[in-house]
Amino acid sequence: MFADYTWTELGSIFAMQGFAGLILFSVFVLMALGLAIIFGQMGVINMAHGEFMILGAYVTYLCSNFVQAYIPSLFGIYFFFAMALAFVAAGALGALVEWALIRHLYKRPLDTLLATWGLSLILQQAYRSIFGAREVGVSLPNWLLGSVPLTDIIEIPINGIFVMVLTLVIAIGVYFLLFRSRMGMQTRAVVQNRVMAGAVGINTEKVDRNTFALGCGIAGIAGSAFTMIGSTGPTAGQLYIVDTFLIVVFGGAASLLGTIASSFAISQAQSTMEFFLSGSMAKVLTLLTVVGILMLRPEGLFSLKMRR
Amino acid sequence: MTNVKSFLSRQDLLGLAIIAAVIFVLMPLAMDIFRLNLFGKYLTYAFVAIGLVLCWGRGGILSLGQGVFFGLGGYCMAMYLKLEASTPEATAIQSTPGIPDFMDWNQITALPWFWEPFNSLTFTLIAIFVVPAAFAFIIGAAMFKRRVGGVYFAIITQAIAAILTILIIGQQGYTGGVNGITDLRTLKGWDIRTDEAKYILYYVNGALLIGALVLCQFVLKSKLGRLLVALRDKEDRVRFSGYDVANFKIFVFCLAAVLSAVGGAMFTLQVGFMSPSFVGIVPSIEMVIFCAVGGRLSIFGAVYGTLLVNWAKTTFSETFPELWLFGLGALFIAVVLVFPNGLAGLYRTYLGPYVDRWISKKPPSGGTPAPAATPADYDADPAAKPAE
Amino acid sequence: MNVVSNNTDFLLSVENLTVSFDGFKAVNDLNLYVDENEIHVIIGPNGAGKTTVLDLICGRTKATDGSIKFRNKELTELREHEIVREGVGRKFQNPTIYEDLTVFENLEISFPRGRSVFGALTFKRDAEVVTRVREIAEMVFLDTLLGMQAALLSHGQKQWLEIGMLLIQDPELLMLDEPVAGMSVSERKQTAKLLNEITKGRSVMVVEHDMKFVEDIAHRVTVMHQGKILAEGSMAKVQADPKVVEVYLGH
Predict the structure, then answer these.
(1) Residue A115 is nearest to which of B148, B326, B337, comparing CB atoms?
(2) In a designed cystine with A270, which of A143, A286, B48, B157 is the match (CB 3.0 to 4.6 A)?
(3) What residues form the membrane-spanning segments (chain B) (predicted)?
(4) Mean pLDDT per 10-residue run, chain B (388 residues)?
């Protein structure tokens, strides 16, 4: 299949597909980061994670419309407000869901899975009732439009670069929050030994709620970033949920580095193959490879040996 | 062969008799053939639900990919029926007569190799059992031998459901794509679209379901059934009692897969088509809710749960399509938070005691009354305790 | 300390056994022998590697190096259920029983017959099984509770039930991890009596913290410290060992 292309063409194809893969990578990382916190740290299966992401996207959409209509002077920077709002909205909903649902089910992970699936159905229908079944898109400020020409053939869209920078910043932020801050330390303490953490004076209920809310909030930011490169519909979240879970499991559930590495591997594999095969076959092959590897190495790519 | 009485208690017989009466007498009298056919369609999902009772309720293995096996069974049947419907005479207007119409539309000029054997009904009937069993065996062996279980197993099976759906939709020349395999007409020359055929298929389906219930009850009442409960609870203890735990999990997963496939095949026969919308993530997880609503520990409950959820789905989505998704979502949450034992749990709390008393008042049907403490009295009722 | 031997006098010979978790050697070059019909107690401070030794013998943890021979058969290459079928039984630290099943069913599942899938499907609760279950239940003081759901037993009764589940397998080597933890004084006495009774015809390895209990039952004591053997011998000899005193009383 390579024979039809010259070397320079092939190089450009790989570069362009590689770049497209990087954007996919960014979305994967943003979604997987929230899930890595909720699933990897807390062991909770949140099947509604995609819907939290879509909430962030809709919040951004509303912000964009509101700013355009009432304070157009701020349109150039509305995106930053929107992102903060998306974080707050998704985080608040997350805290509510933790209080109403998740906290009763910490010992029953499979039941959490079913309950959050129910939640995702309800949220999807709510979005459909409020925003309609059609996909919506946001308008981007001028400075995010256009692209940077790299060579004659290769052009890099600015919004893509912005999303990647954003991903980088958030990934670093999450790393510091989990591994360098007091809150992160408490989270990890609660996860490793709930009783002991409670005994040394950590409010485990509060930590659970904050951690879950944080994971959902990051999903909200992911949704916000998502609007810059695609449109949003009520069921868009469900399209990504299986991929994202596979990414987190593939990376080794408790490892942030693993999550990022597996996002990278999966997104690049998929986007490179997409050029040569049909999109669906690329996805089938990627997912099959991941499932195959997971069957051989169930603990994922990065994992610690534990003394049982 | 084991004496039937050894695994079917009087309560079980009563349960079976009621289900049989509903399927064979009540529904055919109460419904026209259109509604009865719909009811028969629901009953095909009950095969999946009782498989999940074994696998998930008793064994603690949650598969979110049962649609895969339902689909495999359904597609095997559909491929046979499609080939029978695609005779060169019937497809004379195609550029390549004698192959299924969707292949012709996708510029395929010869029957693919894996379609060839489905010209034979014998092969097809065997394949309905063997293909899903083999597929489940491969998945189960790979996962359970490496001690992957619980949540990871659920996610992987879900991914497999997603992969298979994408594959079926993407390869439409070989599979009929998103529309599935449609326009099925005859089985060995017997037109399956007539009302008479629909009645016969409905009764065949009902009989198969009763057979499946008896088979599952036999498995559950054997030591294997108790082992499933044991390994859901303390897998290590079972292992250190000298059992190769993986083999038991593989067995029950394969059994659930085969049951699902039989349901799928009967679905194709009664409804007249098969499509990827019964394979993917969404239908697979809905099948779990059928089982959960019925009470994940009781095979009889699973049948009623399936019927109830599907009846609600049809009723609500016809009249208030928007409310249905809210309702289904709430059902998922309620069945987990409020009544984890489902219909069977409600029955046990409110109705069961009266029924038991009524049954024990009746003189035993022949033979002497059982002595006070038979070993059978030491049996726990795994369906009686709330799942934690 | 021990001379590496190849003789068949011992029921179990553990030689040069090492296991490391990410470089940390939980068990380090350990040699340990268990005689026929011996009650062999392993004591030592927390983290000494006692439970890990039991895990290694029963196959729950894979050894990094060394050998474990049971009746001259290498166990390190076998899987857990195969080790059980060789005649090694293992009780866990926390009572590990099937809470949803009755006492009878708990014991019945452990009855060594019908361990394959097909065997389990065709298993029959015949007179032999019922007699044996009743016999064992009487031994572990549970004969009046056969029909009770195991979740409803007291902590001590659960410990006994698990011991009973091992006894019904009739293992040649029985390994018990803290069998009296959480038991009342009278329950401890009963358990000591039980252990002395069940050693007839088999060997028992016990990991225990309760020194009074160890004195009551032990034929031989091994003291472990930081993955190695510190001292070995009779209880009196071990208690007099200055190294042991130092480890236990510390600085």
Answers:
(1) B337
(2) A286
(3) 12-30, 36-54, 61-81, 121-144, 151-170, 200-220, 241-267, 287-311, 323-347
(4) 66 90 92 93 96 94 95 96 91 88 90 93 96 96 86 90 93 91 91 93 96 95 93 91 94 97 96 93 92 91 94 87 87 89 84 78 45 54 46
Q: Do A307 and C55 touch (CB under 8 A)?
A: no
Residues of B whose CB is below 8 A from C90 = 240
DSSP string spanning chain C? -PPP---SSSSEEEEEEEEEETTEEEEEEEEEEE-TT-EEEEE-STTSSHHHHHHHHHTSS--SEEEEEETTEE-TTS-HHHHHHHTEEEE-SS----TTSBHHHHHHHHSSS--SHHHHHH----HHHHHHHHHHHHHTT-GGGTTSBGGGS-HHHHHHHHHHHHHTT--SEEEEESTTTT--HHHHHHHHHHHHHHTTTSEEEEE---HHHHHHH-SEEEEEETTEEEEEE-HHHHHH-HHHHHHHH--
Q: Each residue of A161-217: pLDDT tens digit?
A: 888 888 888 888 888 888 888 888 888 788 777 778 888 888 888 888 988 999 999
CA A11 from centre of chain: 29
Cα of B222 to nearest chain C Cα, Å:
5
What are the extents of the domains in chain B? 11-281
Tell if the CB–CB gap between B150 and A45 is shorter than 8 Å.
no
Both tokens assigned to C176: 């018990």
d(CA C210, CA C189): 12
Residues in A closer than 8 angstroms to B169, CB to CB, are 280
Tell me which residues of chain C, numbers 103 to 122, contact chain B at a CB-CB cutoff of 8 Å.
103-105, 108-110, 112, 114-117, 120-122
- Interface test with chain A among C21, C58, C99, by most A beta carbons within 10 Å: C21
Sorting pLDDT into bands at 50, 70 and 90, what band is A153? Answer: low
Neighbours of chain A (3+ CB pairs under 8 A): B, C
- Look at B325 and A287 and tell me if their CB atoms are within 8 Å: no
| pTM (predicted TM-score) | 0.90
Predicted confidence (pLDDT) at residue A97 exceeds the cutoff of 80: yes
Question: What are B120's two structure tokens?
Answer: 């034979």
Instruction: With a threshold of 0.90, tell me whether the complex ipTM lies above it.
Output: no
Instruction: Compute the distance between CA of residue B325 and CA of residue B307 in angstroms, rounded to an integer.
Output: 17
